[in-house]
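Task: complex structure prediction.
Instruction: return structure tokens for all chains below.
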Amino acid sequence: MAEIPYKIYLSENEIPHAWHNVRAVMKDKPEPFLNPETFKPSTRDELCNVFCEELVDQELNVTDEYIEIPEEIRSFYKMYRPAPIVRAYNLEKLLDTPAHIYYKFEGNNTSGSHKLNSAAAQIYYAKKQGLTSVTTETGAGQWGTALSMACAYYGLDLTVYMVKGSAELKPHRKAVMQTYGADVIHSPSDTTEVGRKILEQFPGTSGSLGCAISEAIETALKTPNCKYVLGSVLNHVLMHQSIIGLEAKTALDKYGVQPDIVIGCAGGGSNLGGLISPYMADKIRGKNDIEFIAVEPASCPSLTRGFYEFDYGDTGRTTPLMKMYTLGHGFIPASNHAGGLRYHGMNTTLSKLYHDGYMTAKSYVQTDIFDAAVQFARCEGTLPAPESSHAIRAAIDEALKCKETGETKTILFGLTGTGYFDMTAYTNFLNKNMGDYIPTDDDLKKGYDSLPKIQ
Amino acid sequence: MAEIPYKIYLSENEIPHAWHNVRAVMKDKPEPFLNPETFKPSTRDELCNVFCEELVDQELNVTDEYIEIPEEIRSFYKMYRPAPIVRAYNLEKLLDTPAHIYYKFEGNNTSGSHKLNSAAAQIYYAKKQGLTSVTTETGAGQWGTALSMACAYYGLDLTVYMVKGSAELKPHRKAVMQTYGADVIHSPSDTTEVGRKILEQFPGTSGSLGCAISEAIETALKTPNCKYVLGSVLNHVLMHQSIIGLEAKTALDKYGVQPDIVIGCAGGGSNLGGLISPYMADKIRGKNDIEFIAVEPASCPSLTRGFYEFDYGDTGRTTPLMKMYTLGHGFIPASNHAGGLRYHGMNTTLSKLYHDGYMTAKSYVQTDIFDAAVQFARCEGTLPAPESSHAIRAAIDEALKCKETGETKTILFGLTGTGYFDMTAYTNFLNKNMGDYIPTDDDLKKGYDSLPKIQ
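Output:
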């Protein structure tokens, strides 16, 4: 076998021609979405009120394992893909571990993250359907940036509701979206009913993804020729992100490398779901025994401390009900520098896989995360996003376990993005001016009480 | 011939094993540096007072065309190289031009630019010599970031004098350097004699590269076991950057592509010099007739309006005298968002080649630059640095000329870096809050009068 280089790049024609839909392989499927009034499964027509038709079809598709990627989307992908697999030789050396560490790096594009993979797909389908504009929400700003790039490329208008706390921490992230032509509004805002209501109830709130989603949906519903698009949580988004896992597996297979552990950060779940997708299918088929680890912030621990229940996807209760691990849509997560992980719920497919024992989860406080981030930046060069650094933290800990036991495990993690727009957070960390927040049982109880009562 | 992909990546073992030293090929060499007191050529010993020994040897080497890259530096390069050649298919389509446009993209690393190529080399040699710290200056912040990454990797301490105007425009750039462990000081500062003098003379000044260089040299001279390192201007830096041109040529040769025009932005000259190096050698040998174009800001036009004279490299008159195109070390360039191009002089090799007619130069005002930058970002995805956007502007103009004449010229330009830390500038441009400044003949006269009188 050839020596493994620092970076494994595929060639352009090795960019996958189809996405992978892990639900097709699952014996027990995730529960379908429910209409919150009738408690019956949401119909295609109901979903098409809010979302693009082709995306709804993908959302409802639990039978086709592969769905072809249109050539127009592959052309977009060619601007920044394939994304490399990196062997973390320097990190291994620093930790003095027998483990082999690999990461799939999705940050080498202007959006700075994997979000572009789904943005390109969604805006292509929106255009194909004849829409002229879309709305969305953004937390850390990576999804909003990705979408503004896709809208500039395909020629659609875009309104982004950006979580206020993130917008204030990252004015430059907002400026990038504006450079690509997007209209960026701080959420909660007075442009929507739900925003006005939340502002009235919680005047000082720094906002949340759940709230921004409600505002974006409300605006899409009242704007002609406009739909709402979402950067995570939904199954079609997770499927678009399977390109991460497909490329990772193709690249590693070339060198005969099979991971023992696959790690991803988990907010809404799309990056983690995309990374593990083909490997998980093999596990379900009994072909491997990989340990999958979801890593989340201790301040927003939907998998590790949440409830597997039907819940709304947003604070404003405008979405269908989804059976998922959730802290309750009424749970307002504490301010945290990993804005992209501040979400009360979790994708239904991942929730089901977790519930059925196919993967594990763990959580960390943010100072532990930034400690890993700085260590990684200094030895591997790349300055990671706070979200991605959750995966780094867990990978380092697994590698240190190997050091103790002497095992040569192969660890693969997803480095979803760069932290160039998170320098306020880094500065706070370096100045020891960063707090850690863990919700109390009472906080969780309040979230639980917000869950809808299914009849 | 195979169809040309969007991105041409070389494999890891195709990273060059030697740098290219174009001076070895030049029939008329650039003039040697002069001691400003004796007006005799600077000796190796004199230069070693300020610079690392091995770098001085490279600086003085005008005979060896190739200089081997040590394995320890190639290991560092492997973290972020090879850097791709990109075919600007989307830009060509947007411009509706018959021209073929390629760019060598050096921004896919945390420093955000090509500067890392020389930073790695210089810090490796500093460590080899047994130094424990280095000092430097930075304008746009790209060089300082690159150097802080190299110092973190090789384990040296670093003090960065950052041009005050840039530091205030880009606090996040400063935070990246601090994350990598650097000590960042705004220049002019009160930590040096020259800084205090300039502050006294020009209390409101936003600083300049020339002034920051003086401060960094002064500090290096008074600190034990410490030398000064420089990110551009000098010939050894230009030689380290030849890796850009060598990779570009190797990649394009694979597809039988020979550029008709090669374009680079020019501040101190290292990126441009590195990009053109192997192509220029062939031109000198009569093997091609490429048009080389240096692009500079109209506010700091050293090639297009400067004088080919001996001058100091810094405002504080601490460097040797260099025969170069210069606006005079006393010229203080107007504030401009391309901080990396605010330098009064130009590398001596490029100056000589320009003087001897081997290349041409042009200048643009900054609103024209940002206009090209936004256009490029929206169609090619990557958000460019203001410095790099000078090359984009010229490439677009050349492509538009081809549209008029119907010629299918092949244009190669250097996209040296990303603009993620330049969002204040982009915001100013989008808000039509950006001024253009062109020095008057009187301004130039004042600069000329500051030139040393050689006896």
